[in-house]
Amino acid sequence: MATKLARICLARPFLRTLSTAPPSHLTLLGQQYPTDSITNISPTIISKLPLRLHTQPFHPLNTLRTLIESHFPDYAHLSSFSPLVTPYKNFDELSFPTDHPGRSVADSYYVNKDLMLRTHTSAHEIDVFRSGKTKWLLTADVYRRDEIDGSHYPVFHQMEGARIFSSDASGMKEVEEDNARLSQHLSQSNILIEDILHITPTNPAQPSHDPRHSELVAVNLKLSLNSLLLHLFAGVAGASKEEPLRVRWIEAYFPFTSPSYEVEVFFRGKWLEILGCGVVGQATLDRADVPHKMGWAFGLGLERISMILNSIPDIRLFWSTDPRFLSQFSNTDRKISTFKPYSKYPSCFKDVSFWLPLGEDNKKIHENDLCDLVRDVAGDLVEDVKMIDSFRHPKNNRTSLCYRINYRSMDKSLSNEETNALHSGVVSRLQDQFRVEIR
């Protein structure tokens, strides 16, 4: 399951492609697919589809995936699902409301109206449950249209874990026994847990669930994840009896679990959100043809945790092929390595100001389109994009926007000529694609 609901669309606008029609077909992972009026997948995103960083040997994301899998050795470990899914699988099967912002073309990548790139690993949850697996971890690349800065990238990697039990007396006995085992382990470990009530009026058991059973499953979820966080963070944090690892639980909301929680770890002086989780929605299990089961699921972002554990300062680095980056994670014992910056190259920012077109064109706008355009032109040579000015002319009612684009390579110094060429390409694409008037 996703660690957050799909990000609410920013109020700040930008543009959908207006003047450039997509090709009639796109080739994705060796297959051709027809396009239509909502196609918005960009060449940069298409180029990422085959890479699957979480499977590349000695990549920090692969190391983290392996560490988590080693903590759940008797779970099925899955990582080969295609990123192409139907909107029904991505949203409807998981009880997302019809007006959820994640469905928007501003937030998600669509091949056509019937096919999209998954926005979370939960898109495969029902298929895995239906296959008969009761304990599993699933790792995959996921795709969301997003802003450009050091912690956001339109492709990232999630791991989802789930465990389900028979909802009868024998299943609940299994849960109780596992809870006793985990409780004993944690009571002897260097961890301090700030817990909350498992079920409350604002975080209820599902109507079809016996509240006693829901609470047992919620406790099993919490104990299982507290144990995982101890496994991942205690050594790096130097947890001891005097300074234990601190973990706290917070009520949350997800469309496909209830009760639901977020988990934070106190690490290097501040609380950090790590993952989201909850008791699996019974509608999900019913659709998976396992109606007499109940259980829990969690989802975490591998980049987010790796940036914390490995001290990686910029999410773009995960896509670097520079040996100075990759060689730092080529250890054979699969331990967490701390990233050592090999250089900090200077940034070079350029501003672009423009008038938006009038009329209907001005109503179909979103900032994420600018970010996709910039990525297509400059790739990972852009550190961030920020709007620094916006105003509406009082006489002609036209809107002017100004964006600052910060160019910086993670691997080399960019010359002024290189930066000017990149920025010229961005400006040209803005004019050609969106009919803006450069100021």
TrEMBL record:
<dbReference type="Pfam" id="PF01409">
    <property type="entry name" value="tRNA-synt_2d"/>
</dbReference>
<keyword id="KW-0496">Mitochondrion</keyword>
<keyword id="KW-0547">Nucleotide-binding</keyword>
<feature type="domain" description="FDX-ACB">
    <location>
        <begin position="343"/>
        <end position="439"/>
    </location>
</feature>
<comment type="similarity">
    <text>Belongs to the class-II aminoacyl-tRNA synthetase family.</text>
</comment>
<keyword id="KW-0436">Ligase</keyword>
<dbReference type="GO" id="GO:0006432">
    <property type="term" value="P:phenylalanyl-tRNA aminoacylation"/>
</dbReference>
<dbReference type="InterPro" id="IPR004530">
    <property type="entry name" value="Phe-tRNA-synth_IIc_mito"/>
</dbReference>
<keyword id="KW-0030">Aminoacyl-tRNA synthetase</keyword>
<dbReference type="GO" id="GO:0000049">
    <property type="term" value="F:tRNA binding"/>
</dbReference>
<dbReference type="GO" id="GO:0005759">
    <property type="term" value="C:mitochondrial matrix"/>
</dbReference>
<feature type="domain" description="Aminoacyl-transfer RNA synthetases class-II family profile">
    <location>
        <begin position="62"/>
        <end position="323"/>
    </location>
</feature>
<dbReference type="InterPro" id="IPR006195">
    <property type="entry name" value="aa-tRNA-synth_II"/>
</dbReference>
<keyword id="KW-0648">Protein biosynthesis</keyword>
<dbReference type="GO" id="GO:0005524">
    <property type="term" value="F:ATP binding"/>
</dbReference>
<protein>
    <recommendedName>
        <fullName>Phenylalanine--tRNA ligase, mitochondrial</fullName>
        <ecNumber>6.1.1.20</ecNumber>
    </recommendedName>
</protein>
<dbReference type="InterPro" id="IPR036690">
    <property type="entry name" value="Fdx_antiC-bd_sf"/>
</dbReference>
<dbReference type="InterPro" id="IPR002319">
    <property type="entry name" value="Phenylalanyl-tRNA_Synthase"/>
</dbReference>
<keyword id="KW-0067">ATP-binding</keyword>
<dbReference type="Pfam" id="PF03147">
    <property type="entry name" value="FDX-ACB"/>
</dbReference>
<comment type="function">
    <text>Is responsible for the charging of tRNA(Phe) with phenylalanine in mitochondrial translation.</text>
</comment>
<dbReference type="GO" id="GO:0004826">
    <property type="term" value="F:phenylalanine-tRNA ligase activity"/>
</dbReference>
<keyword id="KW-0809">Transit peptide</keyword>
<dbReference type="InterPro" id="IPR045864">
    <property type="entry name" value="aa-tRNA-synth_II/BPL/LPL"/>
</dbReference>
<dbReference type="InterPro" id="IPR005121">
    <property type="entry name" value="Fdx_antiC-bd"/>
</dbReference>
